[in-house]
């Protein structure tokens, strides 16, 4: 299996879905079952390749980039096809291949109006290539290409299969993200030219950043601002989050699931993979700002959830809060905080992905997502209601389920942030985030009370068309449900992989800060 | 699981079962999944599995206790849960007398409650789920108790919290029940956040989550100063939330919305004592934390008095017991607050039995009368003799009448408080002693009131009350017998309890050998006085007082409205956050933040329209169209050349040739 | 015989041909006139071939080629004329303005 570990495995994981898209082109769109079969086959093969990576990965050195390849791509500007994974990207890559596969299974059960199975499945596969590529790319230009590749399928997914305001939401999503990524690209170019215009390679750039060679703190701060805009909009951080509720509310179920579970993680991943290691000085300077915005997002997101009447929009706003915890963890620049952030990303992917599946299925059954119209779900379809309870409780951060560890570690990181960051400020932030956890618990339980509990409303009392969890739904959901409790009871599952890489990152930042300060002295 | 780490356990003698105490929480945990997935298919609808698991747990717990008592040393084991950077979280067990005692209490009460529930919950539509949740609760509680580190404890802590949420809201068809469940979860969660921050503070300062090490560090001064005080107070936040201490007590009375067996198990005997257990577990941290223990004592004193007064005016029998529980939990807290460690734990131990008994008795009454209100009861001693007798035993124990369990434990607490007060070792001891004495009086009074209203007089309810089935009566009698006997374990001077439970690292026996005989006599006399007063007030109806109009009307209103604390929280915090603040946040989101985004979009669109309509269409495009028009006009002129007549084309062609030949000829002539 | 005789004959023939092509209205006559022009060329070829006496018979062969091409051309031309006649019952070139814009 040498070839698999020499970059082929990773390239396969990235491009197999794209091959699937090509294969799909040769099938007439009337062949519904065949199309679904091909889609599932390729998503499944990608998942298998992803699982293969888990076996090929060398966990003892999770801090170094592995399984990659490094080939000529655009030699004129020094951009290379450089890919690889380490402990930071592996969990996210695995999450991506899993969730895409589950979405394919879910699409067997239900393709949203207006049908067009072939197009929708092709877009999902295309999206998968973009997402996987973003997590494995180690070249700034390559990363940017994958990053932008993601926009297109998601745009069409929202714009064609979305709800009543789909046009608005799709355009907003596309333009807002594009707006940010332009600044990100500018940042990339600034780094490129500052480093001598020879390479876009993240590893090489990180090495020169470690020697404090990547510019003065003014240069770093300006460049970081560019990257920050790009990533913060994707996360999304307060106050750049307003595209998210619209996109989520309008997107079809699989679109929402992929958006919440994976797309948002690209932003936070960008911070950890690019912004912090390449611009450590600026990351350090910006950390308080990021922390403050993160805590605002936590409290603000929770408050907005109380005001929602649409179930899906509520879940969307809860994402804002949860990503706030992730960003709080990152802003502490401590191993605890960043490990917690990565754990939080995976947990949020599992839990919120699951929540969006559930909301989508509620809509299929009741044809409404208005909280005020629903009620007594647990009584009418008990299995479904139990899943909703389980997932909501996981989402509010109950220990023993996945949601807890990310939040806990982020808060622990905030209790004592990295050297040089104000402990007082971060402790205030920690308390704010703590208040946020209470608010989060409050709105989720209130939501459960209104949707799940109580009596069945009159208009659904007949209930002959309201069915409990279907077999395909079980198939698509069981892995998520198991992973939620698995990661909750055995957090080592993820932390064992991430820790070495995060340690290396934190050490790198420390060394770079030190090098920068000694350079400044000379 | 890599790196199995065996913590050094210094043992002189090794029992067999004591190594396997982790089975006790594991069994109900497995039972939870079994009941959840297969319960409905079983003939027993799941209860057999739950009862079996917790029964086995009880047997193991008793053997484990016996092995400890016969000289096995405390045992601590741990595995690595995860390790990141400097954070090393263990997954471990710490089995000492305190754990062992809690194990016995939890498994006993849980077993009896589960047996009782086969009768009480028989017709419930969610019977299987009920048993699954009870099993999960038991597992979480035991997990909390066995934890060797604070974070693991927090996991169990929240686990019992969520089970409590499920079970309070068991009858969730009614909105008020699910609201009570939410209230319980959120209120305790407020405390839990403080608890978590306390854990962080201790971890960062002490570099460990391990309970034994943290206590040790506090004792030998590695942890000290204001940090330790703050940490201890934060831990107490969690304890106050779980154990319903002022000002976080408001959830417990509402929690009575759950089925009565749940109230007995969770909201009287086990979960609510978790806070007391936490303070006891971290006792050295508290004792070395400056003013923290005084805060505990004062909060507890306020709580015990306030709750006992509230218990006097309730009509719902479960609420009487709920306030009584708050009051008694405060008793335990107060004991810890004045340093009376052993006495506090002893009260926890005895209280678990008699309060479970009282709740199950109340459940039996409710089962028969179909109402929680004492105004619908009365005269039941004739219809329900077993319930009557056991309930009276429980009431007497709670009232502190010799020789029942409550007498010994309450007496120890008051004695310790008095001793501390007169010795001046704890500055708050006088407060605790006075509050405790008054509370003891009030306790006897409200229990007298409750008993008279339910068992004496004429039956005021509807239907025909009947004695409950054997599955319910048997647990009542078992608990009654335990209530009568367990107090003897802490019999002054000779009871073995003081040798079991003691402040960690302290050799002297838990109860002082200097036993003051006057105090117990006095307290029994006080209780007797309260009973007599209650008898006169509520049975003989002497001194008829119009409580609604008299000079104490405001007191009555204050009590009926629970000191307006619910209103304060609801109108001051919950509603503003839930509605006003949330709406404001969302408004700002839609109008300010999203408005900015949409504004940018609208601005861009406006600029675009201007550019298109004015600039592009009228200037740029004008030039383009002009160029096109010019071309067209030229073409229009030139088209006349093309007549379509081939011969005319040919004529032109030949004419051209002729001209060229002519020119050629001319030039060649010139050249020549 | 001097070559100029042949050239004069050929230019006369060619001029008659040009006249026919330009002036005649009947398409068949136009085709015939083209034949005249081609034959004038043939005379030139043969005359010059005889004059320069180059080794080989390139001039004569060219004349044969031209005859063959002319035959083919007339064949195609007459076919077109017949088709036009079938469609329009007329082969008057003045009336034919199909190529007009």
Care to describe what's here?
The complex is a heterotrimer of chains A (522), B (672) and C (101). Chain A is 75% helix and 3% strand. Chain A is built from 19 helices and 2 strands. Chain A has a two-stranded antiparallel ribbon with strand order 1-2. In chain A, strand 1 (66-74) and strand 2 (79-85) form a beta hairpin. A two-stranded antiparallel sheet of chain B has the order 1-2. Residues 1-12 of chain B have low confidence and may be disordered. In chain C, helix 1 (3-23) runs antiparallel to helix 2 and helix 2 (27-52) packs antiparallel against helix 3 (58-88). Chain C has 101 residues and is mainly α. Helices cover 77% and strands 0% of the residues of chain C. Chains in contact: A-B, B-C. At the A-B interface, helix 6, helix 11, helix 13, helix 16 and helix 17 of A face strand 1, helix 5, helix 6 and helix 24 of B.
Write the layout of secondary structure elements.
The complex is a heterotrimer of chains A (522), B (672) and C (101).
Chain A: H1 2-25, H2 32-56, E1 66-74, E2 79-85, H3 89-109, H4 117-136, H5 140-161, H6 166-194, H7 202-210, H8 217-234, H9 243-250, H10 253-278, H11 280-306, H12 311-332, H13 335-366, H14 377-380, H15 382-395, H16 402-415, H17 423-451, H18 471-489, H19 492-521
Antiparallel strand pairs in A: 1-2
Helix pairs in contact in A: 1-2, 1-4, 2-3, 2-4, 3-4, 3-10, 3-13, 3-18, 4-5, 4-10, 5-6, 5-10, 6-8, 6-9, 8-10, 8-11, 9-10, 9-12, 10-11, 10-12, 10-13, 11-12, 11-17, 12-13, 12-16, 12-17, 13-15, 13-16, 13-18, 13-19, 15-17, 16-17, 16-18
Chain B: H1 23-38, H2 47-69, E1 75-84, E2 87-95, H3 97-120, H4 127-146, H5 150-168, H6 175-206, H7 211-219, H8 225-242, H9 251-254, H10 260-269, H11 274-281, H12 283-287, H13 292-311, H14 317-337, H15 341-369, H16 380-383, H17 385-399, H18 405-423, H19 429-455, H20 470-485, H21 497-500, H22 518-539, H23 553-560, H24 565-638, H25 646-671
Antiparallel strand pairs in B: 1-2
Chain C: H1 3-23, H2 27-52, H3 58-88
Helix pairs in contact in C: 1-2, 2-3
């Amino acid at each position: 299996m040498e070839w698999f570990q020499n970059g082929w495995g990773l390239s396969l994981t990235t491009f197999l879905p794209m091959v699937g898209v090509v294969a799909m082109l040769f099938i007439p769109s009337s062949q519904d079952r065949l199309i679904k079969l091909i889609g599932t086959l390729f998503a499944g093969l990608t998942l298998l390749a992803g699982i293969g990576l888990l076996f090929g990965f060398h966990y003892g050195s999770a801090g170094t980039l592995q399984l990659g390849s490094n080939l000529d791509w655009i030699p004129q500007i020094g951009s290379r096809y450089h890919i690889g994974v380490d402990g930071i990207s592996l969990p996210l890559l695995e999450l991506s291949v899993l969730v895409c596969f589950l979405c394919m299974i879910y699409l067997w059960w239900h393709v949203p109006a207006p049908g067009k199975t072939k197009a929708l499945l092709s877009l999902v596969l295309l999206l998968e290539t973009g997402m996987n590529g973003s997590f494995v790319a180690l070249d700034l230009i390559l990363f940017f290409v994958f990053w932008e590749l993601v926009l297109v399928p998601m745009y069409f997914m929202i714009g064609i299969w979305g709800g009543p305001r789909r046009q608005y939401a799709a355009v907003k999503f596309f333009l807002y993200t594009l707006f940010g990524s332009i600044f990100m690209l500018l940042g990339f170019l600034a780094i490129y030219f500052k480093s001598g215009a020879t390479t876009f390679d993240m590893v090489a750039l990180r090495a020169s950043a470690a020697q404090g060679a990547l510019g003065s703190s003014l240069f770093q701060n300006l460049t970081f601002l560019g990257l920050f805009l790009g990533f913060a909009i994707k996360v999304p951080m307060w106050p750049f989050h307003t595209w998210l509720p619209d996109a989520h509310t309008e997107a079809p179920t699989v679109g929402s699931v992929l958006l919440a579970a994976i797309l948002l993680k690209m932003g936070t991943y960008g911070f950890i993979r690019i912004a912090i290691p390449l611009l450590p000085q600026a990351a350090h300077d910006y950390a308080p700002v990021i922390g403050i915005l993160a805590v605002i997002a936590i409290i603000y997101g929770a408050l907005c959830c109380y005001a929602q009447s649409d179930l899906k929009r509520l879940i969307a706003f809860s994402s804002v809060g949860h990503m706030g915890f992730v960003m709080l963890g990152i802003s502490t620049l401590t191993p605890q905080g960043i490990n917690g952030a990565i754990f939080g990303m995976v947990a949020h992917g599992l839990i919120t992905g699951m929540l969006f599946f559930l909301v989508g299925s509620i809509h299929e059954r009741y044809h409404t997502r208005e909280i005020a119209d629903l009620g007594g779900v647990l009584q009418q379809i008990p299995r479904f209601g139990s899943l909703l309870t389980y997932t909501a409780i996981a989402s509010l951060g109950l220990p023993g389920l996945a949601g807890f560890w990310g939040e806990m570690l982020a808060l622990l990181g905030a209790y004592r942030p990295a050297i040089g960051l104000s402990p007082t400020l971060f402790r205030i932030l920690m308390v704010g985030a703590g208040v946020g956890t209470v608010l989060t618990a409050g709105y989720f339980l209130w939501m459960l009370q209104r949707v799940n509990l109580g009596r069945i409303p009159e208009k659904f009392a007949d209930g002959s068309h309201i069915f409990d969890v279907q077999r395909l739904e079980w198939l698509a959901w069981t892995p998520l449900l198991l992973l939620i409790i698995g990661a909750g009871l055995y957090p080592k599952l993820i932390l064992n992989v991430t820790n070495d890489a995060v340690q290396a990152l934190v050490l790198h930042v420390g060394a770079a800060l030190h090098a920068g300060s000694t350079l400044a002295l000379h | 699981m890599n790196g199995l780490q065996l913590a050094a356990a210094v043992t002189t003698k090794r029992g067999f079962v004591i190594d396997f105490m982790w089975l006790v929480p594991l069994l109900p945990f497995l039972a939870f999944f079994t009941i959840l997935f297969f319960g409905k298919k079983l003939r027993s609808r799941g209860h057999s599995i739950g009862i079996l698991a917790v029964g086995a747990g009880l047997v193991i717990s008793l053997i484990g206790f016996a092995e400890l008592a016969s000289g096995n040393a405390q045992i601590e084991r741990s595995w690595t849960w995860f390790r990141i950077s400097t954070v090393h979280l263990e997954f471990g067990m710490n089995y000492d007398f305190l754990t062992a005692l809690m194990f016995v209490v939890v498994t006993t009460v849980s077993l009896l409650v589960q047996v009782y529930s086969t009768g009480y919950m028989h017709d419930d539509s969610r019977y299987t789920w009920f048993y699954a949740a009870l099993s999960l609760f038991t597992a979480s509680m035991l997990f909390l108790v066995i934890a060797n580190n604070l974070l693991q404890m927090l996991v169990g802590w929240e686990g019992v919290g969520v089970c409590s949420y499920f079970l309070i809201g068991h009858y969730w068809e009614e909105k008020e029940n699910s609201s009570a469940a939410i209230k319980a979860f959120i209120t305790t969660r407020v405390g839990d956040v403080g608890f978590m921050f306390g854990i962080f503070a201790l971890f960062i300062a002490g570099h460990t989550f391990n309970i034994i090490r943290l206590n040790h560090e506090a004792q030998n001064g590695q942890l000290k100063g204001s940090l330790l005080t703050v940490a201890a107070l934060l831990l107490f936040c969690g304890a106050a939330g779980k154990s319903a201490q002022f000002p976080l007590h408001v959830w417990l009375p509402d929690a009575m919305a759950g089925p009565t067996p749940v109230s007995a198990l969770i909201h009287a005997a086990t979960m609510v004592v978790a806070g007391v257990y936490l303070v006891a577990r971290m006792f050295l941290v508290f004792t070395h934390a400056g003013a923290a223990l005084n805060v505990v004592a004062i909060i507890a004193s306020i709580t015990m008095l306030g709750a006992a007064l509230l218990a006097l005016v309730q009509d719902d029998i479960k609420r009487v017991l709920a306030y009584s529980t708050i009051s008694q939990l405060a008793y335990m807290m107060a004991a810890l607050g004045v340093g009376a460690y052993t006495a506090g734990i002893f009260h926890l131990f005895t209280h678990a039995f008699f309060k479970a008994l009282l709740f199950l008795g109340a459940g039996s009454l409710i089962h028969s009368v179909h109402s929680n209100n004492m105004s619908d009861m009365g005269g039941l001693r004739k219809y329900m003799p077993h319930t009557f007798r056991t309930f009276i035993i429980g009431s007497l124990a709670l009232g502190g009448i010799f020789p029942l369990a409550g007498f010994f434990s309450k007496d120890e607490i008051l004695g310790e408080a008095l001793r501390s007060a007169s010795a001046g070792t704890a500055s708050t001891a006088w407060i605790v002693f006075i509050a405790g004495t008054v509370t003891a009086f009030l306790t006897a009074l409200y229990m007298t009131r409750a008993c008279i209203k339910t068992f004496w007089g004429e039956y005021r309810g509807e239907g025909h009350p009947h004695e409950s089935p054997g599955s319910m009566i048997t647990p009542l009698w078992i608990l009654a017998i335990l209530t009568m006997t367990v107090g003897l374990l802490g019999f002054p001077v000779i009871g073995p309890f003081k040798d079991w439970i003691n402040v960690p690292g302290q050799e002297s026996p838990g109860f002082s050998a200097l036993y003051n005989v006057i105090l117990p006599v006095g307290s029994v006399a006080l209780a007797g006085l309260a009973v007599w007063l209650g008898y006169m007030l509520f049975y003989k109806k002497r001194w008829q007082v119009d409580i609604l109009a008299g000079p104490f009307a405001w007191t009555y209103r204050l009590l009926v409205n629970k000191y307006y604390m619910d209103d304060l929280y609801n109108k001051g915090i919950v509603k503003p956050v839930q509605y006003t603040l949330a709406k404001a946040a969302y408004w700002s989101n839609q109008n300010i933040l999203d408005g900015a985004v949409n504004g940018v979009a609208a601005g861009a669109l406006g600029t675009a329209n201007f550019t298109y309509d004015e600039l592009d269409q009228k200037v740029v495009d004008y030039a383009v169209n002009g160029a096109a028009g010019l071309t067209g006009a030229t073409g229009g002129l030139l088209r006349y050349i093309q007549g379509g007549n081939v011969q005319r084309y040919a004529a032109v062609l030949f004419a051209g040739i002729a001209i060229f030949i002519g020119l050629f000829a001319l030039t060649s002539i010139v050249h020549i | 015989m001097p070559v100029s005789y042949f050239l004069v004959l050929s230019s006369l023939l060619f001029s008659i041909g040009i006249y026919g092509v330009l002036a005649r209205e009947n398409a068949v006559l136009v085709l015939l006139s083209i034949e005249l022009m081609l034959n004038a060329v043939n005379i030139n070829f043969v005359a010059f071939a005889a004059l320069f006496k180059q080794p080989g018979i390139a001039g004569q062969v060219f004349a044969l080629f031209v005859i063959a091409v002319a035959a083919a051309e007339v064949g195609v031309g007459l076919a077109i004329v017949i088709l036009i006649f079938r469609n329009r019952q007329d082969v008057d070139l003045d009336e034919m303005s199909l190529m007009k814009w």
